[in-house]
Amino acid sequence: MGDCLFCxxxxxxxxxxxxxxxxxxxxxxxxxxxxxxxVLIIPVEHVSGVGSLSSAHDALVGRAMRLAARLAAExxxxxxxYRIVINSGPDAGQSVQHLHVHVMAGRAFEWxxx
Length: 114
Ligand code: 5GP
Ligand code: ZN
Known about the structure:
By secondary structure, the chain is α+β, with helices and mostly antiparallel strands. The protein has a single domain, classed as HIT family, subunit A. The protein is 20% helix and 22% strand. The chain contains two helices and five strands, in the order αβββαββ. The chain has a five-stranded antiparallel β-sheet, with helices on one face. The protein is globular, with a radius of gyration of 14 Å. The termini are far apart. The site of zinc ion has 5 residues, from helix 1.
């Protein structure tokens, strides 16, 4: 775990507004929401980013995607839409080196992303 912020959130050592958790995944509200819904989904296991995923994580990533869709639908955004984002590396603005899936909804998003 080292000094990883999201490992500490997964271990409940740092508070967060957790909206879902199981043995493999934790979802919590982003501390600085960029949309009315802005949830982060993380693996409990420390994985630094998409570049560190192996085939052993395939089912985990699939579950994370389905959880993203379910959380958005539960909040009423299944039809209006939502955006799922994974930033990887400095050019994409990844600021926390523990894999996280942004799930954002409740406003219209521009494309291409900024
Ligand atoms: P990234 O820029 O790496 O793609 O996304 C990191 C996200 O983590 C940002 O949206 C940021 O607001 C969020 N974040 C950073 N620190 C904390 C924290 O301590 N708690 C929560 N809930 N979110 C955080
Ligand atoms: Zn971590």
